Amino acid sequence: MSEKFKILNEIFDVVTDRKANPKDGSYTNYLFDKGIDKICKKIGEESSEVIIAAKNNSPEETRYEIADLIYHLTVLMVNQGLTWDDIMEELKKRR
User: Fold this and answer.
1) 29-74: pLDDT as tens digits
2) Does some domain include residue 72?
3) Kindly report the CA angle at 4 between 53 and 22, in degrees rounded to 5?
4) Most C-beta atoms within 10 A of its C-beta, which of 20, 21, 44, 53?
């Protein structure tokens, strides 16, 4: 992944580490502990918030909500045993 997307790998690494080494008070661990239903619920909520922010024509709010959505998608990826390489490969196949 190129340098400008390095933060995605950093977040992925932190989420992966939280799954392997739970930390008290960690929101990420809270999501893992609650399971797939909670993770998916959060993705649904964040997706809706992205839509609302975009419909409100608020670029700053949209940026914030997209970041939340990407974080929650990252939690889902780790939970499902997927990596950014898997996602990039899938996107590459579709091009």
Assistant:
1) 999 999 999 999 999 999 999 999 999 999 999 999 999 999 999 9
2) yes
3) 75
4) 53
Tokens of 49: 């918030």
φ, ψ of residue 80 in degrees (nearest 5): -95, 0
Give domain status of residue 12, yes or no. Answer: no
Domain count, the chain: 1
Q: For residue range 83-94, what is the model confidence (pLDDT) as tens digits?
A: 999 999 999 999
What is the domain range of residue 47?
42-81
Say which DSSP state 56 is in.
T
Long-range contacts for 85-93 (Cβ within 8 Å, ≥24 apart)?
88/1
- Confirm whether 23 is domain-assigned: no
pLDDT score recorded for residue 4: 85
CA gap 73, 82 in Å, rounded = 11
C-alpha pair distances (Å), 30 with each of 20, 46, 64, 91, 95? 13, 17, 21, 30, 36
